[in-house]
Structures are given as C-alpha cells and as structure tokens.
Amino acid sequence: MTEMSAKTRKTIQTQAENLSKKVEHFTKAEIECLIQHFNSLLADQVSRGKAAHGLDRGRFRGILQNVFGLTNAMMMDGVFRCFDKDGDGTVTVEEWIRGHAVFLRGTLDERMKYCFQVYDLNDDKYISKEEIFHMLKQSFIKQPTEEDPDEGLKEVVEITMKTMDHDHDSLLSFEDFKKSVQAENLLLEAFGTCLPDPMVISQIIKCINLSFLSDVQADNVYF
Amino acid sequence: MGLTLTRAAQWTTSSSGTAKLESTPLNESLLKEILEFVEKIGSKSPQEAEHVFEEPLQWNTTLVASHFKKGYNTRGSTVKSNEKDSEGNPLLQLSPPSLYVRNFSQLSKLLHVAKDRKLQEVQACLEENRDPMVNILGWNFISKLDRTRSPPEVPIDASEKDVKVKLFILLQDIDKKILNKLVAEISEQVQLDPTIVTKEVELFKQCCTEGEERLLKSLRYTSDFEFSNGCRAPLWRQALGEICYLVIEPCDGEILNITCSSAGVFLNAGFQQEGDESHYERKSDFYEDLASLLKNRSPHFAENINKQVVDGEERGRAQKSEKQQENIVHQWERLQRALYGRKKCDTCQRWRNLGVLTVCGPAEEEKARKSSVEKKRPGARSRMKAELSASYSPGHLSSQRTKTSAGAVVEEQFSESSSETEEEEEQPERRSETNPDLPSEYWQIQKLVKYLKAADQTVTVLVLCAMMELDLTKETCQLAIQDLGGLEVLLNLLDTNDIRCKIGSLKILTKISQNGFLRQTIVHMRGLQRMVNNLDSPVKELQALAAETIANVAKDRRARRTVRHHGGIRKLVKLLDCIHDSANLRANMEKDLEVARCGASALWSCSKSSKNKEAIRKAGGIPLLGRLLRSPQENMLIPVVGTLQECASQESYRVAIQTEGMIEDLVKNLRRDNDELQMLCASAIFKCAEDKRTRDLVRSNKGLQPLVSLLAKADNKQLLAAATGAIWKCSFSMKNVAIFQESKALQTLIGLLTDQPEDVLVNVVGALGQFAQKPANKTAICNGGGIKALINLLNGTNQALLVNVTKAVGACATEKDNVAIIDQLDGVRLVWSLLKNPSTEVQSSAAWALCPCIENAKDAREMVLFLIGGLELIVHLLKSTNNEVRTSICAVVAKLAKDKEILGVLTDRGVVSLLAELINTTDNRLRCYLAEAIGHCCMWRNNRASFGEYGAVGPLVRYLESKDTSVLMSTAMALYQLSKEPSNIITMHEEGVVQQLIHLTGSDDSKLQEFAAGCLRNIRLLSLANQRAACSNENP
Which positions, given as ranges, span the membrane (chain A) (predicted)? Predict the structure, then answer.
C-alpha cells in the first residue's frame, strides 16, 4: 500500500467517493480499503493474462472458498450470479462493493433478497420444489435403512414447503420466503450456505477497520 | 343417520345390483339403534314425525296385506293407510312386493305391525334407500345446508322449513349418538398399523436368505413409494384402511399377493394389469398378521418359523450370535409383544375414520371433496361413488381427504387409533404413567429424528425448523423426542461448529426442557456441559439461547452443581456485563440486553444452591446485578431481582444490597405494575430487612407505603406472602410501624388473619407482634377481633407460625385489660399447652408469652392452679438444654413465684434444686432471669436455706462482676433476699460480696441501690449480732 503511486491513490479516492454515495453501509475509508483489495485480486488475474475490468467466475469462486469459507459449488454459482448484477460474467468493482455490503453489513431485508436470489436457480422469481430438491441433493449423507436416499430428502422438501409456502401454490415466492424468515431467522439460509459465517464477517470487518482505524467515525459503525 | 349409514355400516362389496348390509354384530347393533329411534320418534317429537317425506321410502317388503289391520284400507293384496297427506296421497301404500312410506309416524306404526320381522324391514329399507336423508328432507333442502351440492335452489316454505330443520337436527343427533356408541364399541378392537406391518415385513425380509433354512424365497412391496404415514397403498385405498401390498414367494406353493390393511392381512387377486381395480378384491379370510397368513398358506414356513426363532433365541442367549441374528430375536420379541393379545380384527377402516370426524373443518372438507370428485371414475368404484353422493353431512368427507392434504391427514387418522398398540404393548414397563394415545406427532418426530441423523447442516436446520413447527410444549412430543433418540442428536449438535445448527437445536431444547423428565436426561447426557461451552461463543444469539436453556435445565440440585463444576457460573456472570458506555454499540444493545437477560435467568435458576450463590459473588456478579437492577425492562428485572432475592439468604449479599444502594432500586420496582416483579422485590426486602440500616433505607426511600398497598392484591398468595414478610421485618423499627399505621396497615393485617396460607399467616402474625409493641395497638388488635383469630391460630401445628402467634399474644397481654379477654378465649391454656411442643423455639416463645399473662391476670393463682399439670411442665422445662428455653422458663418462674401458694407447689416440685443447677451459666440473659427467679423463690424461708445448701450463692455473687445492668439488678435483688438467711451471708462474705455491693450502692438506679444497701444491711446486722454474741461470750 505504501509503494502505491499518488496517481493510483487519487483514482481510488475518487472511485471511493463515487461509490460511497451509491452503496450503503460503508464509509468512504472502508470502500477505499475494499477497492484496494479488489485491485490486488484483479492484478493477480491480470498477471495470468486475462482481461482486467472484473473478476471472472473461477477467480471469484476461489475467493469465496478461501476468504468466505463457502464450499458448495451450486451455492457459489448462485452467489456469483447475485454479485454479477449485469450478468456479463465478471464482477466489477462496483458489484464487488455492493456484494460486500450485503455480505458484511446487510440488513435482514437485504440478506433475504440476496438469499432468495441465490436460491432462485432459474431466476423466475419463484423457488420450486425441484429447485429445492436440486440444491439439497448432496445434503443427505447416508441412509443405511432407506433403500432410496432421495425418499427422505423428498419428504424434507415437502415438510419445508408446507411450512414456508404460505399461499399454498407449491412455489416459494419472495413473500413466502420473507414471511418464513421473519418468523424463523434460521430459514434465511434454508437451502444452502451462501453468506459468510459470522466469525468470518467479524474478521473481515476487523481487517477493513484496522487499516483505516483513524478514519472511522464511531457513530458511523453499524455493526 | 346418513352419516352412520354411509360411513359406519359395513356394506357387502358385491358389485352387482344393490348392496347388502353384511350381517355383522356391528351392523346389527346399528340397525337396532335405528329401529329404536324410529319407534320412539312418534311419541318423542310428534310434529316432526308427521312431516311428510319429500320422496317416499320404498322397498320390497316381506309383509303382506293380512298383516295390516286397524287404520289401513285393504283391497286385495294392496294396502293404503287411512291417513293422507295434504294432496290426498296415502302416507303408506303397499302394492306387493313394494312398500311406500311417507312419514315417520307411519314408519313407526309399520314397525309395530311387522313385529318380530321389524329388523329385517329396517334392513331392507336401508339397503334400498341408500340415501334416506335425501328422501326424507329433499334434495333442495340438503343442498341448501350444503352449498357445494348441486341442483338449483328452490325457495322453501318457511313453516315447512322450520319442521324440516328440526327434523334434520333430530336426525343428526341420532346420527351422532349412534356413531358415538359404535365408536366406543370398535375402539376396543385394536388394529394393525403401518409400523407394525413395516416391522413384520422387515423381519421377514431378513428371512429371505439362500439355502435350506430360509423361510421364504422372496418378499417385496408392490410399490417403492412410501407415504409419510408409512403406508404404501394408493391414497384412495388407504381411505379404506389398506396399508400396503406385498408379493411373497414362499418356498413351497405359488406366489401370494397380499394386502395388509388395518383390519388384517388377506390375499388379493394379484396385479395383472395397471388400472384394473379388481385385484384389490379380497380373496381370503382376514388374518391377524402376516405370519399367521403365511403359516396358513405355506406349510414350509409354518414348520420353519418356530425353529428359526428358537434357534435365534438360543444363540442370542449364548452371546455369540451375529448381530443380525440378535436383531431378529429382538424384533421378534417386540413384534410378538405388539401383536400378542390383539383381538381378531375384522372391522373396516372406515370405522376408524369416524373417530376423527369432529376434527374435520369445513375448509379442508371442501378441498377434499373437490379432489375426490376429480377422482370419481366409473366402474369398480361404485362404492366410493355411493359414499360421495351421500356426502352432505359435515365432517363426512374426512375419509376422502386424500389427494390434496395427503400424507398428514391420512397419517392423523392412522395414528389416532394405531397408536394404542404401539405404546401399550411396547413401552408399558418403561413409563406406565404416560398417555396410551400416541399422537401423530410421534411418527412425525420419528421421521425427523431419522433425517437429522443423515443430513448435512443445511438440511439439519430445515429439519430442526420442521421440528419447531410441532407443538413442543406437549408432553407427548417432548417424550417422543427423548424416546426416539432425538435428544441425543440435539445435544450432539451443540458440539458441532455450525452456529445455525446449534441455534436450532437450542431453540428446541429450551422448549422441551420444560419437562422435568427430559431435564434429567439432559443432565445425564452431559447436556449442561455442552451448553456451558457455548456460553462464550461470539454469537450473541447462541449465548442467549444457551443461557436460557440452562435456566430451564438447572432446576434441580444436581444440574446446578454441574453448571458450577464446569465453570458455568463464571461464564454466566460474564454475560451480565452488557452495559457498555461507548455509544457506538447502540445497535447491538438490544442483543446484549437479551444475552444479559438470559444470563440472569440462568443465574436465577442456579442461585438456589448456596455454593452457587458464593460462586456468583466470587465471579463479581453482585455489582453487575446491581447495574442491571436499574434497567427499565421488566423482563430483565424479574430474573435479576429473582437472583438477588434468592441470594439474599446470605449475609454477604445482604450487606452488598444495602451498601450498593440496591434498596432504592428494589423499592422503585415495588411500584411497578407487575405482580411477579413486585413479589420478588418484596421478597428481597423481606430477606434483607433484618438489618436495621436496611429497614431505615426502605423507609427513607419511601418503600413502606407501596408494601402496604401490595396487601390489596390478596388473591396472589405468593405476592401477599412476600409483602407481609417485608412488612413484618420492616416493622422491627418502630418508626416504620408509625408509617405503616398511617396507611392503615394494622387493620388490613388483622383482616388477613383468616383464610390465608400459612406462609402468609406467619408474616402477618409476625408483623402484628411487632405492631403490638405500641400500647395503643394492643387494644386495637384486641378490639378489632384480631385476638380471637390469633388465639385460633394457636391450635395450628406450623412451628414458625406458633412462634409468631405466641409472640403476638404475649405482646397483647402486656395490656392488663387484654389478659382478661385472652383468658376468656382460653388463650392462656392454649399458650401454656404449647410448652409441650417439641420445638424449643415454640416452647420459649410460649413461655415468654405466659409472663405478661401471669403478671396481668386478675387472679393469677386461680388461673394457674386451674391448669392441672401446668406447673410440673414448667419445672420440667428447667431441665431443657436450650438456653433460651431455660431463660424464658426462669422468667415464668419469677412471675409465678410472686404468689406464695404457687411458689409452694413449685417448691414441692423441686424448683429450687433445678434453679440452683443452672447457676453456673455464663449466658447473661439467663443469669438475669435466673437471679430474678431465685430472688422470688426466696419468699419461702426454707428455699433461702436450700439455695445455700445447693451452692447457688457463691456463683451468684460472681454475677456481680457482670457489666450488664439488668443482671446486676436482678442479682442484687436475689442477694438481698438470700441475705435474709445467715448461712448465706457467710458464703457471700467469703466470696467478697461487700466490696461489690458497696460499689453498687453508688449506682444511678435507686432500686439497685436499695437492694445493694439492703443486702449490706443484712450482712452488717449479722456481723453485729456476731460481734454481740462474741462479746457476750467473752463477757458472760
């Protein structure tokens, strides 16, 4: 960071200035830190000889796995889809910051929206039984007594559907999802881990804050 | 009646022509019920009986014209009744073989005519009129009641409608009555259920091995899909009670197609082609289980089954069998138990459905109806159709609630009755007190637990959420979770790293740990350790839940100890530290407070052990509790004050509560409108107010007034006990009594002397005893009827209460006029008899109460001598080993001895020697009263000498070294009395009494001076006399 040229610093500062107006939950200083982190990740990618305006899927998944501790491939794809708002296959710096806002400091509402989007595999605004089944497919470890391990899973999907599907249309709309999560917060990540662990979150936040401790205003901290 | 017929009656399954009622005992009793109803309707509700049916009931009768006599118009073989309806049609018409009847009164008459054949007539009538309700009331009427039923509505005449409705209600009533009766009958017959079948099948599957010993070649289900209720039959067959279909290939003979239904096991026609319904038809008798069917059909099986079981058992006993074999034996035993004693069942599944009729709501019903209508297909399902077309009565359709509400509903029906076999036969030795009905939740929980064991964290959370949806406050659910191994899984989850799983598990544990039985198991399974481990998680929600669960579990001693031993107290105290001054943590405040609240709740539970109280203090809990005591939230204050009041039994806490200014907060919270909080605050004050400074603090913080106002909530006994307790302790300060009296506490307290639980009475009486220290109050208590209630309480057995009552009575007796009242009410005798109480406390306090009674009695001599054996009792108690008792009895003796006659009796009983024996005591109070008693006993000359002989004088002189003025006073008095006996003077003189007495003459107290001087005078007189005698001796 110290050997950063004045010019880059200037760019980052303007970038941060702009983004801090668009993205909630972060101070300008924090955004600067996140941008730097993004840039360094991007630089790795560039050095491997690729286009430079955003992180590609593979790189992004690597980060999810190493930094945020997400392991489920299907979930990671979903997370990428959510980060990559414009669907161009790369995560730009703005998308990066926005994603982090939800990851690190998202309100319950924002998190619900985010999770729903991850779980809505075909992006039709509904989560169907098939989608749930698909997401949970790997979740039953062993079933020595059962001939068909899917049987139990099917049943779990049925039960879950029964409790979450408030309008009884056999599909989970966002409203259904929201209602259920508000009643029982545990259902936020109902169909797979797609948010970082609270420990990871607090570690990352500590990292961000540590580098700009002096700039952080006490009353601006939400977390 | 429609309901009974379509649902309860057992129709033959023959597809040709009209269905017949099978001749079963159940049908018979059903027919009898209907018959009775029809026969009586004419007399019971004549108006309804006259109502003309919309359509005549028509059937082929066996009656002929000759049967009909009076009131009928017979022409050839046709018969017409004389009675006609408004349009002139006869109400009964017979044109052989058909018979038409148009109202109930005719029906009833007809049955009368039919005599011994009436049962057959009813049967024929019902068989040919499968929907009699429609005939009787008309389609329109029925459809009006039941909107979903088709044809267009036609206006119905109002008055006619009235009768119709009445008739309809009548029919419904009888319907219900019959059903209830039949349900009661069939409920005695226990039936097969999916679990038993599954177990049996599993067992036989293991028997399908290779080689000679095998029992069967193969066994398979026709369908791999298992519904959530454990059934495999299609839903619409499940409604008929069928559970699953099996294809079994025995070692000998042809393949068996078997239907397992709740009524039993039977052979079916076999599946030839899909969609053909005929294979469901029963081809054999019912067998009570699979084994008996197989035994019957396959000789090989019958021969080998017993051998295998015996083999298995033997091997099992020898303890070298393979696991599988052991398993078989075990399962066999269980199965045998489950099946043993089960009656032969040949009832239809439909019966079972009757049991759940009442729980079926209209909404579900309608949904179900739609679904069943969809399924309506021509052909072999004519029976189903018959049911459908008759489905107008509320609740009727529950058996057909199939497709949409699927598993759960059907399951509910199954478990409703199937449960009995399961619980009764399998678990009686384990827990005989539990309800024999297993609810549907049992099966649900069984499944969920199974899934929990096989799921990763994501699905685990889903399953936990599903479990939370169940009513976990129900004991059956709680026990089911324990019995099915769920508790273990839940506790194991606490050891994982997944926060969401832990949270989910704790959410369930908090609820189910309300059950004492489960709490024990949790402690056994090291559950508390795991919860304690989670207390220092960085996730607040987890901390809070863990603490909350500990609060629930730590309700017995062992659990509390476990928490302490695992460092739980320290961690819990740490949770209380939630108030940070820094403003930036505002957002987290709520979570922090919740954590602190749960921590306080857990500490409250734990603080019932004294070692835990100490541990909380050592962990620095007191200041933290003090800080939380200023919290504005009641839900926070309750556990905090709860902990404090629990701990206030310890001196260190009382001091802390006083010195850290908590009294102020406690008083403040007394004014909150929350009974529990008020109770806890009052209780804390109760425990702390033994200390004078605390009492003063309560007063200076204006806490006395709210305490009195709590007395108004006399319905809440706990609150009342705490409030009266606090008042009692606070009234030890007379300043407080004055303030209490300003708010008319005295009157209220007197009012509380009757009809209260003992713990309230103890406090009320204690307070009255304190109030009675003021002379004015003594009269007030006596005049206000208080004394009568108090004396009544002397008959009780509660020792704490008796102590307080005697104190109060004693306090009242210090007023002269009161003693007369007390004596009149037999109070003195009662108090006196309490000297026989085993408790020394009661003894002494009774003795203290007697003192003023004796002193103030108009004629003490008469009063005392009247009490036969009373004086012996007093003398006897001087032998007590308890100093307080001795002291109080000495006081009584001192009062009694004032009367010469009584003193005579006492002396005869040996009071002198007993008093003399006490002389070497070091207890100042005892010395004081002992000296007084000795002094008073010296009224008799002989006694004075006796005291000397018993060696009481010397030690008594040494009492004068005491600094206690009251001891000095009574000793001086006693010495003065004793000095009237010359031999005593010698002893006194030897003990060097003169110097001390001279010193005492310089006292401020004139009485003391007098006694000292009097004693000196006696000594002087003796020595003068001595000198004189010496002189006279020298100079005779």
Answer: none
Collapsing DSSP to helix, strand or coil, B75 comes out as strand
Question: Which domains does chain A show, CATH number per domain?
Answer: 1-106+196-222 (1.10.238.10), 109-192 (1.10.238.10)
Dihedral pair phi/psi, residue B221, rounded to 5° = -80, 155
C-alpha to C-alpha distances, B303 to A220, B214, B299, B307, nearest whole angstrom: 84, 11, 6, 7
Mutate to test the interface with B, among A155, A181, A187, A203 (most CBs of B within 10 A): A155
Phi–psi pair at B822, nearest 5 degrees: -60, -45
Provide the shortest C-alpha distance from residue B746 to chain A (in Å): 52
Q: pLDDT (tens digit, 9 = 90+) per residue, B488-529?
A: 999 999 998 888 999 999 999 999 998 888 898 999 888 999
Look at residue B922 in the predicted model and tell me its pLDDT.
84
Q: Which of B120-129, B489-498, B812-821, B823-832 is the most confident on average?
A: B489-498
Give the whole-angstrom CA distance, residue B624 versus residue B576. Answer: 6
For residue A80, the one-letter residue type is F
Q: How confident is the model at residue B145 (pLDDT cuts 50, 70, 90)?
A: low
Using the structure block, give the residue that is written with the tokens 């580098």. A211
Stated as kind and residue range, the H or E segment containing B217 is: strand B216-221
Q: Is there a contact between B911 and B893 (Cβ–Cβ < 8 Å)?
A: yes
* Mean pLDDT value of segment B992-997: 82
Residue B691 has pLDDT above 70, yes or no: yes
Numbered residues of chain B with Cβ closer than 8 Å to any chain A Cβ: 224-226, 228, 407-408, 447-448, 450-451, 454-459, 461-466, 468-469, 499-500, 503-504, 507, 538-539, 582-584, 587
Give the span between the Cα atoms of B494 and B496, in whole angstroms: 6
CB contact under 8 A, A186 and B465: yes
Please tell me whether the interface predicted TM-score (ipTM) of this complex is above 0.90: no
**Nearest Cα residue to B114 out of B67, B69, B70, B73:** B67
Question: Which of A136, A148, A218 has its CB closest to that of B459?
Answer: A136
Q: Which two tokens stand for residue B805?
A: 């009552």
pLDDT band at B400 (very low <50, low <70, confident <90, very high): very low
Nearest residue of B to residue A221, measured between CA atoms: B584
Question: Which residue in B has a C-alpha nearest to residue A218's C-alpha?
Answer: B584
- Considering only residues B842 and B420, tell me which one the structure prediction assigns the higher pLDDT: B842
Q: What is the pLDDT of residue B351?
A: 37
Q: Per DSSP, what are the bridge partners of residue B21?
A: B11
Q: Report the pLDDT value the prediction gives residue B188, as an integer from 0 to 100.
A: 52
Interface test with A, best of B584, B585, B586 (most A CBs within 10 A): B584
Most distant pair of Cα atoms in chain A: their distance: 67
A209 in contact with chain B, both atoms CB, cutoff 8 A: no
CA A40, distance to chain mean position in Å, is: 20
A186/B459 CB distance under 8 A: no
Q: Is the entire prediction scored with pTM above 0.95?
A: no
pLDDT over 70 (residue A215) = no
CA distance linking residue B400 with residue B733, whole number of Å? 77
A138: closest chain B residue by CA: B456
B499: nearest CA in chain A?
A197
Q: Name which of A119-128, B31-40, B366-375 the model is least confident about.
A: B366-375
> Residue B108: which of B121, B90, B89 has the closest Cα?
B121
